[in-house]
Amino acid sequence: MRSRRCRFAAAAALVAGAAVSVSAFAHGFAGARFFPATIATDDPFVADELSLPTITWQKNPADAPGAPAQRETDYSIEMARRITDRFGVELGATWKTLHTAGASDLRGFDNLSVGAKYQFFENDAHESIASVGVDWDIGHSGAARVGADPFSTVTPTLFFGKGFGDLPESMPWLRPIAVTGQVGVGIPSRTSTSTRNDDGSVDVERHPHTLEWGLAFEYSIPYLNANVRGTGWSDVLNRLTPVVEFAMSTALDRGSSGTTGTVNPGLLWDGRYVQVAAEMAIPVNRASGSYMGWTLQLHFFLDDLFPKAFGHPLVGG
Q1: Structural domain of residue 233, as residue ranges?
Q2: Number of structural domains the chain divides into
Q3: Three-state SS string across 73-84, please?
Q4: Model's pTM, two decimal places?
Q5: Does 202 map to a domain?
Q6: Based on the number of CB atoms within 10 Å of its own CB, is 201 exposed (0-12), middle (13-18) or buried (19 or more)?
Q7: How many H helices and E strands in the chain?
Q8: Residue 155 near residue 187, CB atoms below 8 Å
Q9: Per-position DSSP letters for 185-221, written without gaps between them
């Protein structure tokens, strides 16, 4: 496998020369604020976009003391399409490869996911935006050998975004900051799953409701240049947005408790047609894992790439 540095350089080369003024974008705006697409948390707006691919690598803990750890590589695709100006649908799929030393690799699709989102609020003066949505992780649609659940999970979620460009002129260096986030409840279709062992005993795994929540803190260099003051940097650097994401899950009931998740620092680079993103994934506690992972993403703005096909919603466009 090529190094992540090589992957990032190759992806960046695909988009070199594609950048234009941020004002040319047609999605993810609240006033002068452009909210870039984040990786670990979902966006607070509807759009016509395609993530292809999103590559994630992580090292999972061993199943038993002394056993080898497992390396997991995921290749994901996700597409979002506006039905109206404020309502859109999403579809996602992930191909997983699990590698354990001394054993054959396990490969297969994880469960498919479909979702819908409605943007109900936008305040341009205060660079604020909010949406509600629901995601359906479809049970039995993936391969059990790679850990796809035999049950479905439905997650209704609130999404929000807030830019700080409305701060006073006396605080110029804080105005490029933005925060996006989400909070939802994962509702499994089964309360538990029973598995019969070779010795005839039965293991019962309970499936709790979970609080799925996350935040992304962004510092937009494009916003700094366009709305505060110029940096004098090169065009490539002026399109960067440093970001730190927090992706968390908290078990709520059925004998489970505690929070797991990752802190994801990274960089987003936005051009007119594409966005390149790279993030690390750092476990927040021992229950979340002991190894740091990473994610790379190439994200296409379909309404800019294909304005005749995607530059308008399906209804009322």
Answers
A1: 4-64+71-310
A2: 1
A3: EEEEEEEEEECC
A4: 0.88
A5: yes
A6: exposed
A7: 4, 17
A8: yes
A9: EEEES-SEEEEE-TTS-EEEEE---EEEEEEEEEE-H
- Whichever domain contains 95, its CATH number is 2.40.160.40
What amino acid occupies position 247?
A: A
Residue 293 counted as domain residue: yes
Contacts with 236 (C-beta within 8 Å, 6 or more apart), sequence order: 16, 19, 269
Write out the H or E segment, with its range, that includes residue 153: strand 153-163
Within-domain flag for 317: no
Q: Is residue 315 part of a domain?
A: no
- Going residue by residue through the chain (317 aa), what tens digit of pLDDT does each one get? 444 344 333 333 333 333 333 333 346 899 999 999 999 999 999 999 999 999 999 998 776 666 778 899 999 999 999 999 999 999 999 999 999 988 899 999 999 999 999 999 999 999 999 999 999 999 999 999 999 999 999 999 999 999 999 999 999 999 999 999 999 999 999 999 888 887 778 888 899 999 999 999 999 999 999 999 999 999 999 999 999 999 999 999 998 999 999 999 999 999 999 999 999 999 999 889 889 999 999 999 999 999 999 989 999 76
